Amino acid sequence: MNLHVSPAQVLRYTAFTAEPSGGNPAGIVLDADEIDEAAMLSIAADVGFSETVFAILVEARTLKVRYFSPLAEVPFCGHATIALAVAIAHRDGVGQLSLHTKAGRVSVETTVTAAGSILATLVSVPPRTSAIADDALTQLLAALRWPREDLDPLFPPRAAYAGAWHPIIAAATRGRLASLDYDMEAMRVVMDQHSWATINLVWPESVHVYHARNPFPPGGVWEDPATGAAAAAFGGYLRELSLVSPPTSITILQGQDMGRPSQISVKIPVDPASGIAVSGTAVPLQ
What single DSSP character describes residue 70? Predict the structure, then answer.
């Protein structure tokens, strides 16, 4: 097994943006057939982004993919999937991809926009939600340092899944969302107890526009500037709780409060068993 790859073999893209200064950076290793799990984790730690994706070709346009944060493997990562699809489109041309992830099969399609950039659209595994026990919610809010009166009562706290689990916590005001000063170790402990990937903090600007922030302590990351898996989970949450009228589309704005603005487009179909479509562009960082 190869325990190391050269820096040149790790592509670096930033997803959900058209500018290198925005979006969420991801490491990408194509043709990762002979890299073992320990090496993948080591490479992800060296890259230092919230996730690095490793792709293994199964057959034409079909890949097995694995995602690693600097600290651990995650079952699915949306922004790294978008980055991977755009990188493959740059190398092999646009089209359909079939990705085998630990969360299940995810399809991705790349197209060329009128402006000439590559747009990638993933369709998640079927989403679902679960109640958050009151003691777990109490721990989570204590780690956030958010009192319950700062929550939006129209958006009840739930854990939402579309490849990874993300608690949905809605702020009553934009100011509450902008003020993020949480206890990282306490948050990591409660998240590890419940196998939560990120905390999806949201504020509804309108029925079609949402602002989001995503703490990611289990990955050793204070905050993600764009989180495609959480966006898909949130789309499923909105549909399951009848907070939107599908078919519909929403836009999620993330990263503004940390200086890396990102835009995530989400399409929510009617069928409750259907996956959620998440779209965005990505650009290389090198």
Answer: S
| Residues forming a β-bridge with 211 | 203, 253
Per-residue pLDDT, averaged over 115-128, amounts to 96
- Per-residue pLDDT of 46-104, as tens digits, reads 999 999 999 999 999 999 999 999 999 999 999 999 999 999 999 999 999 999 999 99
Residue 55 belongs to what H/E stretch? strand 51-59
End-to-end CA distance of the chain: 27
pTM of the model: 0.95
Cα distance between residue 207 and residue 216, in whole Å: 26
Distance CA 3, CA 1 (A): 6
The CA–CA distances, whole Å, from 161 to 20, 116, 274 equal 29, 33, 13
Superfamily of domain 128-281: Diaminopimelate Epimerase; Chain A, domain 1 (3.10.310.10)
Q: Does 7-123 match 128-281 in CATH topology?
A: yes
Residue ranges of the alpha helices (H) in 130-270?
134-144, 174-178, 184-194, 228-240
Using CB atoms within 10 A of its CB, is residue 156 exposed (0-12), middle (13-18) or buried (19+)? Answer: middle
CA angle (74, 78, 84) in 5-degree steps: 100
In 3D space, the residue among 221, 273, 240, 181 whose CA is nearest the CA of residue 77 turns out to be 221
Which residue from 143, 120, 205, 179 is spatially nearest to 167, judged by alpha carbons?
Answer: 143
Domain ranges of the chain: 7-123, 128-281
Eight-state DSSP code of residue 279: E
CATH number of 7-123: 3.10.310.10
Q: Is the peptide bond before 247 cis (omega within 30 degrees of 0)?
A: yes
Q: According to the model, what pLDDT value does residue 106 have? A: 97
One-letter identity of residue 28: I
